[in-house]
Amino acid sequence: MTVTDAVVRVLDAHAKLTSPAGALARDADLYAAGMTSHASVNVMLAIEDAFDVEFPDELLTKSTFCSLGAICCAVEGLLEAAA
User: Fold this and answer.
1) 19-26, long-range: CB within 8 Å, 24+ apart, which pairs?
2) How far apart are CA 27 and CA 52, in angstroms?
3) Which ranges of 15-82 would DSSP assign to H, the alpha helix?
4) Angle value at C-alpha 24, between 19 and 25, nearest 5 degrees
5) pLDDT tens, position by position, for the chain (83 residues)?
6) Within a 10 A sphere around the Cβ of 64, how many other Cβ atoms?
C-alpha cells in the first residue's frame, strides 16, 4: 500500500468529507470538502497511528492538513527522517 492509499483510507474514515477522498484532486481543499478542525485532529491522530510517526509542533498547522497532497508530503518527510 502506498502512502497515498493509506492517507486516503484515513481520510475516508476520519475526515467526514462530503465525498470519498480518492475522488478528490490531490490538491483539493479538504476543509472546503467538509473536514472540520475537529476532524483534522482525528485525521492527524489516525495518520500517526497508521504510519507510527509523530507530527512535530512545526507541522501542526492547517496547511499540513489542507489537502491529500500536503498530508502525503508531510508523512513522506516524517518517514524519510525516521529512516
Assistant:
1) 21/68, 24/68, 26/67, 26/68, 26/69, 26/72
2) 24
3) 37-51, 68-82
4) 170
5) 899 999 999 999 999 999 999 999 999 999 999 999 999 999 999 999 999 999 999 999 999 999 999 999 999 999 999 88
6) 18
* The three grid cell numbers given for residue 38, joined into one nine-digit string: 475537529
The C-alpha atoms of residue 50 and residue 7 are separated, in whole angstroms, by: 9
| Predicted TM-score (pTM) of this structure | 0.94
Rounded to the nearest 10°, the torsion over CA 19, 22, 27, 31 is: 30
Spatial separation of the C-alpha atoms in residues 82 and 74, rounded to whole Å: 12
**Burial tier of 37 (Cβ tally within 10 Å: 0-12, 13-18, 19+):** exposed
